[in-house]
Amino acid sequence: MASRRRMLLKVIILGDSGVGKTSLMNQYVNKKFSNQYKATIGADFLTKEVQIDDRLFTLQIWDTAGQERFQSLGVAFYRGADCCVLVYDVNVMKSFDNLNNWREEFLVQASPSDPENFPFIVLGNKIDIDGGNSRVVSEKKVKAWCASKGNIPYFETSAKEGFNVEAAFQCIAKNALKNEPEEDIYLPDTIDVAGRATQQQSSGCEC
Amino acid sequence: MLPDTEDEEKWLAEGIAGVQHNAFYMHRALDSNDLKDVLRYSVQMLSELRTSLLSPHKYYELYMRAFDELRKVEMFFREEISRGNISVMELYELVQHAGNILPRLYLLCTVGSVYIKSKEAPAKDVLKDLVEMCLGIQHSVHGLFLRSYLCQISRDKLPDIGSEYEGDAETVNDAIEFVLQNFTEMNKLWVRMQHQTAALVSHAGIIVILKLLGDLVLRLEFELSGLQGLTREKDKREKERSQLRDLIGKNLHILSQIEGVDLDVYKETVLPRVLEQVVNCKDDVAQHYLMDCIIQVFPDEYHLQTLETLLSAFPQLQPSVDIKTVLSQLMDRLSNYATSSTEVLPEFLQVEAFGKLSNAIGKVIEAQAYMPIVGAITLYVSLLTFTLRVHPDRLDYVDQVLGACVKKFPGKAKLEDSKATKQIVALMSAPLEKYNDIVTALKLPNYPHVMDHLDNGTKKVMAVVIIQSIMKNTTCISTADKVEALFELIKGLMKDVDETQDDEIDEEDFKEEQNSVARLIHMLHNDDPEEMLKIIYTVRKYIVLGGPKRLPFTVPSLMFSALKLVRQLQGQDGEAVGEQVSATPKKIFQILHQTIEDLLSVSSPELALRLYLQCAEAANDCDLEPIAYEFFTQAFVLYEEEVADSKAQVTAIHLITGTLQRMNIFGVENRDTLTHKATGYSAKLLKKPDQCRAVYACSHLFWVDDQDGVKDGERVLLCLKRALRIANAAQQMANATRGSGDPVMLFIEILNKYLYFFEKGNPQITSSILQGLIELIKTETQSDTSSDPSADSFFASTLRYIEFQKQKGGATGEKYEPIKT
């Protein structure tokens, strides 16, 4: 049972609207990229098989809406995440400044048992734009922030060119695996469940 | 009727407990590969989703728990099949034996996912089956979540282009068809919610019904009108619907992610089908949200190429839909797109984006007869923003937008709605910000028409915005015509409005406004004297209308602007060139003379006096003696007749003396008259110390330190002696009254004047006179009981100066040598 559960690794991608969350996921899973901006509605995931130390895992990658108005149902899907990926656009300072909010929001909403050691990963995306000339967030600045938050691993990526995407997700998968399973141990009150089960089935209509 | 949050938390906790409990046994069954028990417990687990007690938010939490568990079931199914224990088709049949439809369909979708992945049946058939089976759930919340589950598990199994599920018999069209169908059904469920009042109370809610009955009794007791309850019920439903919206919107997101949805497919199939659903559902919440979604999830390029289709939907929406926000977002996106790269701009021209948007806005406003005026204006602001960003060179477009907006205003009436006026300010500010140049805005014929519809207060605000724009960009307004147009635009600041004068006007605000007008006048300039003169005429025409409160602010600016022109023309004599030339200093002085008289008519004598002196000095520089003399005469007349306050007199006389000292064109006679007057007035000031200081200042009138300056040593001495006498008198008065006056200071000041002229070589001032004065001051300071530290230090430094000059040696040292300090 434990092995089956550990075969699935749940990863949540967060970040401001337009930083390239969907593109990173599409590049990693489908090796595809589109320059067009398309907003994400709600939460959406894709899966991909990964091999870590000769073992196969399924990575469940949740792409989220960066625009708050497309997150109407809340963030119940954060629950049980094994790793949280924080994405910003190296060409937009605000998207970096907001990483803190995203991180805090995640910790509050997902309430992992050990928030200090919960695995985060930071991706600075769109390094390809204008040959890096329009970049406004320096590597030093990001690394300082990552260090201050418990040495979060940092990758610079280009979803467009596929640069560093594979490496970043390898790291994401490894860190997700390191995360201690969160699943609360459930112990039933009584071993006999037949009573309850029949009760359940007898009540109510067909829908 | 509303379950309070405490109850809801309890129900959610019970639901979660139910899921966990069954999941526990399900896990054991998974571990022992017991398919029967896996199905049994998963059905029981999924039965928790049959609750109707939870709000969508809470239901989502429960759903996510079950969702996570189903991933394990799905993995197990795959393993079972690969182990050969059961075929996927058999499994697909088997799960349909579940008793309750909701658990059954969740399991069916889960198997369906495995089925498609196994490729034992075409994806399109499985998907079609599933999407139709889901019709069995007509409970809105249950149905929406079930379908979003279907949406999620099929997400990576659509027969998209390049996907492993694409085949000869199944194409991207099947994928699109599937998502569209699911979308349509979900939207129906969602829209229907608003008509379901009792939907909340379903089978699982017997307890609720009982509770409701109890509530009802209470309510009848306390609340005779149930209306409040109905509204609350409606609000709650709206809130629940709003929470659910992303489940429906997600279908559009998936459509946008399908590789095969290229521009053609989007244009031919996706957009028309989606719009059809949006328009036909006739539900304002759904329409607003879905239009927003369409705009956000599909690429800009698609919008641009299907603009007509997209825009044609807007006039068909319900009147209560907030179209302006949605349309503004579309225009925002498009204008961002236009500025993203120069390559896309031709596309905008090619599809005539401006014309289409403009047309659509017109139609929307027409269709929505009850749209408040602010809504219409907001739309035009967005269109204008779009135009300025996409077609900055098309002033005709900009004007067209303004013109269309003007047409929407009701008659000649002023707008009363404060939100609407705010939008107008935004509308009028946009071109200023874009072009950084009022001159461009002045070229727009409709610009002033928009202004006409503002109330007086807002007109002023707008006028200030215009002036600030000019100042910020140091825009030069260079012709009289433009000046005229500009003043017409800002006339709210230039004169009192005809209506009853508002007493509420804040003094500070008024000053600020008029100061800005004064600053503006300096921005009206042309290097050509003829045109500049015309500008001055125009400015004068407007500012004389300003009334007593404004003239003191505006006249000085006009004066100095005109004097600047005078300086430019200096040396050119009008008479020599002939009468045809109007821009002559003489001519300008005439205008100035009149303008100062205007100022006088509103009783600002002190300001007028200063301006006369400025003009006199300028006339002096132009070698126009009679004119300079005339200005001086006017200044003196003013002094005599209008300046009564003794403090003002002191200031005025010093100004007069100072100016007169610099005048060099007066003949002996004129000069004598004027200096005589100045000294006379000086000696007649009220306070002795004032007299003294004014008189010793007059000494400079007789000794101008220029090459050809007057050098009348005798009269200098006369002045200084007279000052000394007055100082003496002042001292006696002070002694008599033990007043606070400080005559010693006066003596030291006079000593310094003596020193000045001594140094300048006035033969009348000798070292012995200086010596005498020094002795006098020394005696005075010693006898004075209440010594004044500032006088002491002034005297000390004066003496130090003399010592310093002695030590210089040479001629200077020799000259100072006899003086003993």
From TrEMBL, chain A:
Membrane-spanning ranges: none
Gene Ontology CC terms, in alphabetical order: endomembrane system; vacuolar membrane
Location(s) in or outside the cell: Endomembrane system
Membrane topology: Lipid-anchor
One term of GO molecular function: GTPase activity
One Pfam assignment: Ras
PANTHER family noted in UniProt: RAB FAMILY, RAS-RELATED PROTEIN RAB-7A
Family: Belongs to the small GTPase superfamily. Rab family.
UniProt protein name: Ras-related protein Rab7
Species of provenance: Zingiber officinale
UniProtKB/TrEMBL annotation, chain B:
GO BP, sorted A to Z: intracellular protein transport; retrograde transport, endosome to Golgi
Stretches of the chain forming a coiled coil according to its record: none
Key word Membrane present: yes
Membrane topology, from the record: Peripheral membrane protein
KW Transmembrane helix (keyword) present: no
TM ranges: none
A family per Pfam: Vps35
PANTHER family in UniProt: VACUOLAR PROTEIN SORTING-ASSOCIATED PROTEIN 35 (PTHR11099:SF0), VACUOLAR SORTING PROTEIN 35 (PTHR11099)
Protein purpose: Plays a role in vesicular protein sorting.
Stated name of the protein: Vacuolar protein sorting-associated protein 35
Taxonomic source organism: Zingiber officinale
